[in-house]
């Protein structure tokens, strides 16, 4: 039934998908197929994959301890490296130094300095090396010391990582994870404050996810490692020390699914990474003013989870996108376009998008703050949309 | 002068590990991370090791295990003893001198070139090379001839408009075949598969997605060719790294031209391979031309082989038009990469007889008689043929028989490939990811709808 319904639908794309029942029946199955396919290895992993798809994250966990994001990422890495000997890490200072943000701390002692490889400083080349190793059957995790430096690896990421599975006719797969801290930090200067999700979003063959909490950091890291596709995992410099309780039992987060942070009725606020926290701060103010925002952390930057987003828009009919990218060509720009393509009929107001200006990030603290979307702006935007 | 000489940082790291840390020098504090560098007991090959005597990866995986296996002998490390005029900075000991001497930009003489057969196909007296069996010699020769005829026929096919692009290896047949022969006993030239790739038909392993001669085969351990120059070099290091992790008795080999050595990836890949002790052979086909750029405008070093030393990589320069020399060099290189766990750089000097590709006319930038000279007098195939026939392993009759058969086979392959159906439109959307995501499903549906609505605007022979 699902196949017949979708092909006869006149509405293009996921609009049809979100409204018709066949799709909502198909989606979890499709998602669990992807996740289940990705979860090779011990049965324990597969079982958790099915659970992870169905789970409503927060309520079903048994909280264990307070973990900062970097520790959660590290845990995810360690678990995967223990269960799969083909998983390896490469990057600058990831070995005995433990990585510039300590995500790989202790791994070299556990797994040896061949599996946790310190590379010379040449991003294009160690990314290329990771791709070559992946084509031979390893599952490398390539760490960029800062996402901005991965611009040097753009050639390998675009021309090889994204393309080789396709151009080889499916003969070679590239299950790499490319990760690193990005986003605007505290006065790190323009070159260390890049939002690379804008630049990478066009590359065919790539998947992109952004983590924002210790829980989803670990879950997305594990899912990314298990995925057969190349995944870029965007971490944020300022979120490494956030603490949260995460479960003891094994879990992963689906790569293609958005996270419902706060259900609401009046407006859908779509955000990701650090901006989630600015949005939640604004949400407190908004609630006091009598608004009921629905906050979704989109998490999956490529592809967008238009299912979750669409269902929300059908409920609230108003959309605000809050991002850290530049106004031109950022994730917000693409998301806005996708929403208009698919959910135009459900909108009662123009989509608003709050982004950074099209300027390099300045060093001076006051200027830097002015270039990042602040909670007050979010509150004002919601008030405007809901008029 | 009471200049107390401390040891090289590697030795001090080992002493620290042993807990016998004596007199900490200021320059040691906050120095390199405590990666324990260990002398590999089996490292010395034929005499004293050079100053780059530290090996990073031992047989065991864990660096803790490596720390336990330290060498006790640190008296005559690097051949220095107390009393020499020596400085110890991070990186090892160096002698110092009070005179200012700049290293010359190049040595007085160029690095010699290894060659086994002279221009008449006779083995040079006193030459040493890897013996080949009669079967192997004949196989190499017939593969070289096949490659030559294949290049001619496919080039003509492009000129006739039957394929969009082609790139020949005229003049470099010895490099291609002899180096591959030293690594594998598999078939080296597969006409039908090759034709399928060039025509981008349904049987192409690449499913019609890459331009001609950008083939690849997982089964044959051949990574799909990618157009950007030199991107394959770090990938080869990655593949070698994977072989090293799996402790396989194998090496990786990667080919590039003189032009490719200017790319950043070349330098980083060689550097990585040296530091990681990766079993990879870097094979440079120095054929004198990068499209229209001659090597004099590409670099100012003595070719490519000298650059190996800059990265701590052993290298050899070889006559690329001498099939036996290439075979021997690659055979030896393979042994070294595998048994010693180190990269090797091979520079094969040769000449690009053909144009860079079907989009190029090289008579515009180089003299025609130069091309002719290399095409005839310096042809690697006829030179090797003289040697094979000199051993009574080949005859003129077999020659004409081979050429006739190969030509027929290739023409047949082209016809079959040309007539074979192209991949269906559905293959436009597969393999972008492991499974087709919803956005690509939609885009595929959109394309199908458009084709069905306007069939006259789309080719009829491409299945949907």
TrEMBL record, chain A:
SMART domains, alphabetized: Transket_pyr (SM00861)
Domain called Transketolase-like pyrimidine-binding: residue spans: 67-242
Keyword Kinase found: no
This protein's GO CC annotations: chloroplast
Highest taxon listed in the record's lineage: Eukaryota
Reactions mediated catalytically: N(6)-[(R)-lipoyl]-L-lysyl-[protein] + pyruvate + H(+) = N(6)-[(R)-S(8)-acetyldihydrolipoyl]-L-lysyl-[protein] + CO2
Keyword set, alphabetical order: Chloroplast, Metal-binding, Oxidoreductase, Plastid, Potassium, Pyruvate, Thiamine pyrophosphate, Transit peptide
Class of this enzyme: oxidoreductase
Cofactor(s) required, per the database record: thiamine diphosphate
A molecular function (GO) term: pyruvate dehydrogenase (acetyl-transferring) activity
Pfam family, any one: Transket_pyr
First-listed, main subcellular location of the protein, grouped into a coarse class: plastid
Transmembrane feature ranges: none
Enzyme Commission code(s) on record: 1.2.4.1
Role: The pyruvate dehydrogenase complex catalyzes the overall conversion of pyruvate to acetyl-CoA and CO(2). It contains multiple copies of three enzymatic components: pyruvate dehydrogenase (E1), dihydrolipoamide acetyltransferase (E2) and lipoamide dehydrogenase (E3).
Subunit structure as annotated in this protein's UniProt entry: Tetramer of 2 alpha and 2 beta subunits.
Protein name in the entry: pyruvate dehydrogenase (acetyl-transferring)
UniProtKB/TrEMBL annotation, chain B:
Keyword Metal-binding assigned: yes
Entry's Gene Ontology BP terms: branched-chain amino acid catabolic process
Subcellular location: Mitochondrion matrix
Ranges of residues in domain Dehydrogenase E1 component: 143-425
EC number: 1.2.4.4
Name the record gives this protein: 3-methyl-2-oxobutanoate dehydrogenase (2-methylpropanoyl-transferring)
Co-factor(s): thiamine diphosphate
Catalysed reactions, as listed in the record: N(6)-[(R)-lipoyl]-L-lysyl-[protein] + 3-methyl-2-oxobutanoate + H(+) = N(6)-[(R)-S(8)-2-methylpropanoyldihydrolipoyl]-L-lysyl-[protein] + CO2
Chief subcellular location: mitochondrion
Cellular component GO terms held in the UniProt record: mitochondrial matrix
Keywords assigned: Metal-binding, Mitochondrion, Oxidoreductase, Potassium, Transit peptide
Family: Belongs to the BCKDHA family.
UniProt-recorded Gene Ontology molecular function terms: branched-chain 2-oxo acid dehydrogenase activity; metal ion binding
Name of the encoding gene: gb00348
Subunit structure: Heterotetramer of alpha and beta chains.
Protein's organism: Eleusine coracana subsp. coracana
């Amino acid at each position: 039934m699902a196949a017949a319904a979708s092909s006869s639908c006149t509405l293009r794309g996921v609009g049809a998908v979100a409204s018709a029942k066949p799709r909502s029946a198909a989606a979890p199955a499709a998602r669990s197929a992807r996740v289940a396919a990705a979860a090779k290895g011990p049965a324990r992993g597969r079982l958790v994959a099915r659970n992870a798809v169905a789970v409503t994250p927060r309520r079903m966990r048994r909280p264990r301890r307070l973990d900062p994001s970097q520790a959660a990422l590290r845990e995810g890495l360690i678990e995967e490296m223990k269960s799969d000997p083909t998983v390896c890490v490469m990057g600058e200072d990831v070995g005995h130094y433990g990585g510039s943000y300590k995500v790989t701390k202790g791994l070299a002692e556990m797994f040896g300095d061949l599996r946790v490889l310190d590379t010379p400083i040449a991003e294009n080349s160690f990314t290329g090396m990771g791709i070559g190793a992946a084509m031979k059957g390893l599952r490398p995790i390539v760490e960029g010391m800062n996402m901005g430096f991965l611009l040097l690896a753009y050639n390998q990421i675009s021309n090889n990582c994204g393309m080789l599975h396709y151009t080889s006719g499916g003969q070679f797969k590239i299950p790499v994870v490319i990760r690193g801290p990005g986003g605007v930090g505290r006065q790190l200067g323009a070159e260390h404050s890049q939002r690379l999700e804008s630049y990478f979003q066009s590359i065919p063959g790539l998947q992109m996810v952004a983590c924002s909490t210790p829980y989803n950091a670990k879950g997305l890291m594990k899912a990314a490692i298990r995925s057969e596709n190349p995944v870029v995992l965007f971490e944020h410099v300022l979120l490494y020390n956030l603490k949260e309780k995460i479960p003891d039992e094994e879990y992963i987060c689906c790569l293609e699914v958005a996270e419902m942070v706060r259900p609401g009725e009046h407006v859908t606020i779509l955000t990701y990474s650090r901006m989630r926290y600015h949005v939640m701060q604004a949400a407190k103010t908004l609630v006091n003013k009598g608004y009921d925002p629905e906050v979704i952390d989109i998490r999956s930057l490529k592809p967008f989870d238009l299912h979750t987003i669409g269902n929300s828009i059908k409920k609230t009919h108003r959309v605000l996108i809050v991002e850290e990218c530049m106004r031109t060509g950022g994730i917000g720009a693409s998301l806005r376009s996708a929403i208009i393509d698919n959910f135009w009929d459900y909108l009662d107001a123009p989509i608003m998008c709050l982004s950074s200006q099209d300027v390099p990030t300045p060093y001076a603290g006051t200027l830097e703050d002015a270039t990042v979307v602040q909670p007050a702006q979010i509150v004002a935007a919601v008030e405007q949309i809901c008029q | 002068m009471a200049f107390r000489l401390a040891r090289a940082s590697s030795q001090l790291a080992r002493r620290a590990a042993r807990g016998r840390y004596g007199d900490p020098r200021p320059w040691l504090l906050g120095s390199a991370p405590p990666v324990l560098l260990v002398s590999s007991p089996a490292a010395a090959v034929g005499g004293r090791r050079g100053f780059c005597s530290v090996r990073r990866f031992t047989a065991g995986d864990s660096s803790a295990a490596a720390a336990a296996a330290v060498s006790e002998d640190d008296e005559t490390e690097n051949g220095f003893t107390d009393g020499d005029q020596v400085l110890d900075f991070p990186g090892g000991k160096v002698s110092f001198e009070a005179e200012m001497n700049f290293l010359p930009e190049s040595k007085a003489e160029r690095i010699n070139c290894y060659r086994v057969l002279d221009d008449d196909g006779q083995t040079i007296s006193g030459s040493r090379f890897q013996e080949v069996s009669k079967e192997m010699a004949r196989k190499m020769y017939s593969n070289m001839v096949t490659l030559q005829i294949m290049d001619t026929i496919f080039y003509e096919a492009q000129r006739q408009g039957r394929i969009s692009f082609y790139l020949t290896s005229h003049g470099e047949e010895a490099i291609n075949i002899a180096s591959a022969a030293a690594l594998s006993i598999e078939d080296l030239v597969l006409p039908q598969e090759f034709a399928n790739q060039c025509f981008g038909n349904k049987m192409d392993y690449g499913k019609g997605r890459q331009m001609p001669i950008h083939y690849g085969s997982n089964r044959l351990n051949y990574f799909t060719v990618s157009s950007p120059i030199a991107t394959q070099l770090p990938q080869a290091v990655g593949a070698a790294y994977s072989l090293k992790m799996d402790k396989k008795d194998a090496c990786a080999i990667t080919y590039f031209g003189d032009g490719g050595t200017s790319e950043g990836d070349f330098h980083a890949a060689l550097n990585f391979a040296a530091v990681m002790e990766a079993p990879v052979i870097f094979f440079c086909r120095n054929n004198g031309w990068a499209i229209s750029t001659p090597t004099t405008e590409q670099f100012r070093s003595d070719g490519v082989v000298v650059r190996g030393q800059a990265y701590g990589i052993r290298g050899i320069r070889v006559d690329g038009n001498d099939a036996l020399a290439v075979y021997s060099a690659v055979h030896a290189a393979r042994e070294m990469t595998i048994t010693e766990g180190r990269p090797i750089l091979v520079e094969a000097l040769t000449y690009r007889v053909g144009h860079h590709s079907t989009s190029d006319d090289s008579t515009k930038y180089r003299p025609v008689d130069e091309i002719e000279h290399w095409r005839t007098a310096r042809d690697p195939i006829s030179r090797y043929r003289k040697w094979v026939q000199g051993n009574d392993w080949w005859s003129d009759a077999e020659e004409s028989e081979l050429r006739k058969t190969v030509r027929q086979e290739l023409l047949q392959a082209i016809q079959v490939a040309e007539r074979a159906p192209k991949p269906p439109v559905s293959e436009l959307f597969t393999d972008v990811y492991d499974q087709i995501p919803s956005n690509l499903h939609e885009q595929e549906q959109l394309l199908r709808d458009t084709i069905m609505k306007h069939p006259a605007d789309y080719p009829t022979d491409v299945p949907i």
